Amino acid sequence: MSFTQQKEDKEIEEALVRDLQAGNLEAYDRIAELYQKKIYALSFNLMRNQMDAQDVTQEVLLTLFRKINTFQGKSAFSSWVYRITLNASYMKLRSKKKEPNISIDELLPSFNGAGFQQEKIQDWSGSTESLLFTNETREVIKKAVDLLPEKEKVVFLLRDVEGLSTEKVSEILDLTVPAVKSRLHRGRLFLRKKLSGYFEEYSSPKGEI
User: Fold this and answer.
1) Which of 7, 32, 57, 189 qualifies as a cystine partner to 40, CB 3.0-4.6 A?
2) Where are the domains of the chain?
3) What is the dotted CATH code of the domain comprising 104-203?
4) CA neighbours within 13 Å on the CB side: how many for 94?
5) How does pLDDT run across 152-207, given as a tens digit for each residue?
6) CATH architecture, range 3-94
7) Which tens digit of pLDDT belongs to each residue from 99-157?
8) pTM value?
9) How far apart are CA 143 and CA 152, in angstroms?
């Protein structure tokens, strides 16, 4: 998307917010249309449950309608929407019995005293383009992402899955840019190690062990 298009979209969004704050219900319908899929996608990626994601989506849209006058424009409207979605998703998750996540330190690469990585992890990132189209591979990746600790998981989802910029993620989560980069790096290392064995086996010729 070009800078000009981004500017136009932002101006349209800001106008819709002003209209809704003034009581224009048509503006709410437009905002709901713009954000419904984004809200659902993020909540589903966090919870992996369609019904829960649908519930959260409806809850967030209702919150936007009820609390639109509390939005003061100190951050982007989209950042506000994402924060509400994250909060609603986390509340839904905490209301359910949840299995504990694996400690990220257990799967991060280990380093020796000289600062060199002690174990060789296959870099599967270059071969995933074709693999991502298979249902099996998508499911394996989803399960690995689900194991990410909460702090790293939300950064990974916003940055790598939703495609938001590092600066946008820092605004949504109220973190510094270096903190976002650190969590994203740790999350990617976690996934790289967790998935390296699978991709090594997948890419090996049949019959080879």
Assistant:
1) 57
2) 3-94, 104-203
3) 1.10.10.10
4) 7
5) 999 999 999 899 999 999 999 999 999 999 999 999 999 988 888 776 665 555 54
6) Orthogonal Bundle (1.10)
7) 555 454 554 444 444 444 444 444 444 444 444 445 677 788 888 899 999 999 999 99
8) 0.76
9) 15
